[in-house]
Amino acid sequence: MEHAAIFHRPGDNFIYPTDQETLHIRIRTKKNDVQEVHLLNGDPYEWDKASLEPMKISGSDSLFDYWHIHVKPEYRRIRYGFFLKSGEEETYLTEKGFFESAPEDAGYYFAFPYIHKTEVFNAPEWVKETVWYQIFPERFGNGNSANDPEGALPWGSKEPSPDNFFGGDFEGVIEHLDHLEDLGINGVYFTPIFKAHSNHKYDTIDYFEIDPQFGDKDTLKRLVSECHKRGIRVMLDAVFNHSGYYFEPFQDVLKNGENSPYKDWFHPHSFPLQAGERPNYETFGFVGSMPKLNTYNQDVKKYLLDAAAYWIKEFDIDGWRLDVANEIDHQFWREFRQTVREIKPDLYILGEIWHDSMPWLRGDQFDAVMNYPFTANILNLLASDKINAQQFMNNISSVYHSYPENVFSVAFNLVGSHDTPRILTECGGDEDKTRLVFSLLLTFMGTPCIYYGDEIGLSGEMDPGCRKCMEWDKEKQNLRMYHHIKELIALRKEEPLLSNEGQFEFLPSLHENLVAFRKFTDDKSVLIAANPSGEPVKAILPGDAEYTSLFSASAEIKTGSAPSLELGSYGFIIISSSDSNTEK
Fold first, then answer.
1. C-alpha to C-alpha distance for 34 and 37, rounded to whole angstroms
2. Which member of 352, 426, 495, 505 is catalytic?
3. Burial class (CB in 10 A: 0-12, 13-18, 19+), 339
4. CA angle 540–490–413, rounded 5-degree value
5. Residue 338's closest CA among 356, 320, 312, 364?
6. pLDDT tens, residue by residue, 160-198
């Protein structure tokens, strides 16, 4: 038994409450090294009544097996350790190390002192059933030419550039809400809508004003109301890490230097402020037009938190997406959560973080982050062919076990955005690959997001190419792609197991060339299989259950004494089974 590979820590993704009565506990061991793991647990004040309970493998990656168990401590507190067996070797792991026999003193064991109601991760339940649609407002639809910015071009007449405008606005979104409703969308994420200089609006001038090219506040209220009538939630994008160059307080510092009452709103290194290749003040990256805000400053904090509260109170928005969230101090985000949740307890808080995000997902800051590891792995699997099916499952399993399962169930999954090339372009124009990407996106754990236009086959390279005008001429839309995505969204809504109900596990043994996983409860299971290769694959279905195909694309079930699957190149299938005890 490889003791050095055995790992547990009493917190974060290894032990956490899933509700006010239940703890989810995990331990990690070397892959294929340990045959049995049991949880030794009991009340710290009645340790003589401690019991052993078997744990199960919830998944594996390239190096480790992950074991888990759900327990309900009678008094919401627990001391615990682990009994592990490998062949004839047995050991106990406690907080104080490994032992040949179980220590009698409860003080030797790991502790979860108490399940506090306020410390249970409580992302909004509605998010699990949400399919998001990201809109870049300047490029979705021009419904009112009267508010077009100066020099706006005819819709779609040129390729997008960093500084051209086409007049997209709120009226244009309202005109096309039927498109979203027909597709099955029930959540819209808007990139910034506040007054700004650029076409992307990530350089805010005024956090309390709408950019006039999009319309006015009455139009936004009508847009939110029309969305809500259709069961569509609305999430806005906030840039609290930095302002724009023309933000009034920054302009005051540019003009008055050390004498400006706003000098502590930013991070100047010296005066006068100078932009250039390396500004003498802190910025987003080294972009002089995006000066970094000092969120430790109480006046800055009040201004930003008041802005966050304003758009919820006045416009009834349902979520905030937070740009460059990892570069802002944690205390600001704790106060942000308290502020917005007091106004709307089920508001969704989404952070833009591209790396390990556990420090922001302990229930006191964000509900979710944008799941870029999922994006990277699905692109490596299907767009660039850098990894195979087994490597994909190993990689995603590692990510999955890096977070509590109730955190992962509301992760914001995406395969493209205003910051990345279009998914069809990433896949080299291969529509079969692209459809398979969406098949995985819309059946995986988490809440999926579709970037505007991807559903009708828009293409485009990296920014600004990915920000072209939406194509509304149906004769120029890829309707086969549209209906594929629409059907999957409808199925996700019909089958609760596809919208984050139940448990999740990969099925690596189904076939070495398949990405296969299942979502299951005690009495039902849904199996998803995808063939990410250009060659057909045949696989024997596990167990002796009866299988029913819910959806298929270039795939089918073969019945008989040994039910099997046949998947063509880039084939995909969703199978329902009444037997949840499918062997891995």
1. 7
2. 352
3. middle
4. 80
5. 364
6. 999 999 999 999 999 999 999 999 999 999 999 999 999
342 is catalytic: no
Please check whether residue 514 is in contact with residue 531, taking contact to mean a CB–CB distance below 8 angstroms: yes
- Structure-token match 């999740």, residue found: 504
10 Å CB burial of residue 430 (0-12, 13-18, 19+) is: middle
Residue with tokens 């249970």: 120
Q: What is the mean pLDDT of residues 378-387?
A: 96
What pLDDT was estimated at residue 499?
Answer: 87
Cis before 291? omega within 30: no
Rounded-to-integer distance, Cα 69 and Cα 18, Å: 12
Q: Is the pLDDT of residue 38 over 60?
A: yes
414: nearest Cα among 506, 350, 483, 474:
350
Three-state DSSP class for residue 487: helix
Give the phi and the psi of residue 384 in degrees, each rounded to 5.
Answer: -110, -5
Contact 363, 120 (CB under 8 A): yes
**CA-to-CA dists, residue 43 to 61, 111, 532, angstroms:** 33, 10, 48
Kindly give, in sequence order, each residue whose CB lies less than 8 Å from that of residue 166, ignoring residues fewer than 6 positions away. 138, 139, 142, 152, 153, 154, 155, 156, 157, 160, 469
Q: Which residues pair with 413 in a beta bridge?
A: 448
Q: Is the dihedral of CA 448, 454, 459, 465 positive or negative?
A: negative
* Residue 489 contacts residue 183 (beta carbons within 8 Å): yes
Only one residue has tokens 């849904």, namely: 526
Burial (CB count <10 Å: 0-12, 13-18, 19+), residue 312: buried
Q: Which of 61, 138, 203, 323 is catalytic?
A: 323
Give yes or no for a contact between 209 and 259, defined as CB atoms under 8 angstroms apart.
no
In the structure, what pLDDT confidence band is assigned to residue 577 with cuts at 50, 70 and 90?
confident
Residue 580 has pLDDT above 60, yes or no: no
In which band, very low, low, confident or very high, does the pLDDT at 579 lie, cut at 50, 70 and 90? low
**What is the spatial distance between Cα 583 and Cα 219, in angstroms, rounded to a whole number?**
54
Angle, helix 298-315 to helix 330-343, in steps of 10 degrees:
30
- Rounded CA-CA distance 491/550 in Å is 8
Q: How far apart are CA 490 and CA 185, in angstroms?
A: 10
Q: Tokens representing 456?
A: 């009708």
pLDDT at 545 (0 to 100): 76
Please list the alpha-helical segments (H only) found in 246-323: 248-256, 298-315
Helix or strand or coil: residue 189? strand
pLDDT of residue 562: 81
User: With a threshold of 0.85, does the pTM exceed it?
Assistant: yes
CA 102 to chain centre: 41
Tell how strand 132-135 and strand 110-112 pair up: unpaired
Q: Supply φ then ψ for residue 88, to 5 degrees.
A: -90, -10
Could you tell me the two tokens for 416?
């493209």
Q: Is residue 323 flagged as an active site residue? A: yes
Alpha-carbon distance values, 571 to 375, 534, 541 (Å) = 20, 9, 16
Return d(Cα 287, Cα 355) in angstroms, integer.
22
Q: Which two tokens stand for residue 77?
A: 């507190």
Quick one: average pLDDT of 355-374? 95
Residue 137 φ then ψ, to 5° = -55, -35
DSSP state of 9: -
Mean pLDDT along residues 343-365: 96
